[in-house]
Structures are given as C-alpha cells and as structure tokens.
C-alpha cells in the first residue's frame, strides 16, 4: 500500500490550509488557468475539505487555440513566444478571473522540461496572479522561475507550489494593510 503523505505533500497541504483560511476569512474566491502546471494547482486547491467554499475551478489549456478561446490571450504575442511569457501567464490569470467570475486567479505557462525544438535547455516558467477589486482586475504578483536540474513532474510541482506561496504572501500583505 502506498504511503499516504510524503514530506512534500504535508508541506503543500499546510500551505493550502493556510490559503483556505485566508480566502474564507476574506470572503474571496479563486480559479486557475494552467498550462505548464497541468492540473497541479487544481489538485492542490481541491485537496482540502471544504474547498468548494472558495475554489471555483480551473482550466488546463495546453494548446494555443484553447488559450485564445477560453482565456482570451492575445494571439499575436502568444504565437511569437509559443505561448510562454510573463504576458501570457498574466493574460491566462485574467482570463480565468473573468471566465469563473472570481476574485483571484493564477495563470501558469512555461516549459516543464528541455525542448530542443524551441531552443530550451533548462525548464522555465511564469506565473501571474490577479485580483478583482470593485470592477477592476489587476495583476498583483508575477514571477519567472528556472528549474535547473528538475524533471518534468518536479518542475510542475515547483511552479504550482511557488504560485500558491506567492498567493499566500499577497493575501497576508493584504490583511496587514487593511
């Protein structure tokens, strides 16, 4: 029988529980738009009992067309960067925020492993986090991550964890300033 929780799982679970408390305490909802992280964010956010109180859902949009249709990313820029840039990650977050009509959203994109066809030697990724306040949605956090020595799944996990950690930091700052 497999082990129920690994050390990493416990760290991620602790992080998601902290996010749950922040989101519920502030009556905030969240959705995600994932490419590189390929469902890791959705799985993490849904891993805690009661997540439907704050987690509206997510989209895993791996191909160019779905990112345009579902998330309204700007097609010319996306085509020139193979859908991998900070702008695309931010647009994915904004698209998820609108699609799910939530307060917060995260978008992820990148390369989870080397891609010789795209001249990518080392995995890298971008994430963006947006927040809807009143009638305006704005980017509140963004980051470029490098995955030196990480395999595909480790890179996906790293990006999902980093995005959730950045969201927690943002929510804690929001609470301390309000």
Secondary-structure map:
Blueprint: H1 7-25, E1 30-34, H2 40-45, E2 55-60, H3 64-71, H4 75-80, H5 86-100, E3 104-111, E4 124-133, E5 136-146, H6 152-177
Parallel strand pairs: 1-2, 1-3
Antiparallel strand pairs: 3-4, 4-5
Helix pairs in contact: 1-6
What features would you describe in this structure?
The chain has 178 residues and is α/β, with parallel strands linked by helices. It contains 6 helices and 5 strands; from the N terminus they run αβαβαααβββα. The protein has a 5-stranded mixed beta sheet with strand order 2-1-3-4-5.
Any descriptors?
178 residues, alpha/beta, 6 helices, Maf protein, 22% strand, disordered N terminus
Number of domains: 1
Architecture (CATH level 2) name: Alpha-Beta Complex
Biggest sheet details: 5 strands, mixed
Q: Order of helices and strands, N to C? A: HEHEHHHEEEH
SS field, number of helical segments: 6
Kindly provide the name of the CATH class.
Answer: Alpha Beta
- Which structural class matches the secondary elements? alpha/beta
- Terminal residue distance: 47 Å
Give the CA-based shape.
Answer: globular
Major sheet strand order: 2-1-3-4-5
Q: Could you give me the name of the CATH homologous superfamily?
A: CinA-like
Strand percentage lies at 15-25%
Helical fraction equals: 40-55%
- Strand tally is 5
- The overall pLDDT average reads 93
**Oligomerization state:** single chain
Per CATH, what is the topology?
Maf protein
Low-confidence stretches: 1-7
- Radius of gyration, in Å, reads 16 Å
